[in-house]
Amino acid sequence: MSKINESMLVSEIMDMGPDVTEIFLRNGLNCLGCPGAATEKLCEAAEGHGVNLEALMADLNDYLDKL
Fold first, then answer.
1. What is the pTM of this model?
2. What pLDDT sits at residue 49?
3. What is the three-state SS of the chain?
4. What pLDDT, on a 0 to 100 scale, did the predictor assign at position 16?
5. Residue ranges per structural domain of the chain
């Protein structure tokens, strides 16, 4: 079951596991320390940085499924 959806706040997702930041970085998002992370939805962050949202969500959910 997917834990991540496109409407979740980036900061909320970053709090879900110790290595989530690595997944954001690997997908082209440097969200750690970004003030937008507290108010930006995942879909907004992906669109704003030209990141494939579906691939990012798949990577995040795959990681969280292994916790």
1. 0.90
2. 93
3. CCCCCCCCEHHHHHCCCCCHHHHHHHCCCCCCCCHHHHCCEHHHHHHHHCCCHHHHHHHHHHHHHCC
4. 93
5. 10-65
